[in-house]
Amino acid sequence: EAGVTQFPSHSVIEKGQTVTLRCDPISGHDNLYWYRRVMGKEIKFLLHFVKESKQDESGMPNNRFLAERTGGTYSTLKVQPAELEDSGVYFCASSQENTRGGYTFGSGTRLTVV
Amino acid sequence: GDSVTQMEGPVTLSEEAFLTINCTYTATGYPSLFWYVQYPGEGLQLLLKATKADDKGSNKGFEATYRKETTSFHLEKGSVQVSDSAVYFCALSRAGNNRKLIWGLGTSLAVNP
Known about the structure:
The structure holds two protein chains of two kinds.
Chain A: E1 5-7, E2 10-13, E3 19-24, E4 31-37, E5 43-50, E6 53-56, E7 65-68, E8 75-79, E9 88-95, E10 104-105, E11 109-113
Parallel strand pairs in A: 2-11
Antiparallel strand pairs in A: 1-3, 3-8, 4-5, 4-9, 5-6, 7-8, 9-10, 9-11
Chain B: E1 3-6, E2 11-14, E3 19-21, E4 23-26, E5 32-38, E6 44-50, E7 56-59, E8 62-65, E9 75-77, E10 86-93, E11 101-103, E12 107-112
């Protein structure tokens, strides 16, 4: 089966611009998660979708971040406007039900804001 | 709140050396514990997991035992290979519907031939 696909793999944007990251989960996986790793820090949870609904968005840093999952398939994470501190690697993961922590991760999107 | 503490890297070993990467945690209840690995240029992969006390997770020659009395989940391998060079992450997930992972900082391992 195809894995979790994220794109772009790299993005370099200027401060104040908008960037949209995309994640295609494994087909049939209702759970979709976004995480972020800022350089030198631990990976942090951002949010969790169950199908198209946001189950937990407690990790979203602020209202410049908007995540969507229309139709319960792929998800997008938009950062608008981007700030320097948004730089990092954004990981997406998906799982079937009742898979506590045993996700399948994508390769990540490395975002650099200059 | 919940947290995971990992030994800091980088760790540099010679091939066939013994590996230990320490991981301790703080959590309420009975979390599940995980080791993830990120090889160069790749995404995060689940290496092994344990869901209850005294469970031993194992995969690819790596092992870790869930020790509730010491709140630890140390990763070990008896003989490392160059191909084991990667970043290793310890993580936990609490019971219940909240399945999000709490992560350690990650430990970079370099194995020299």
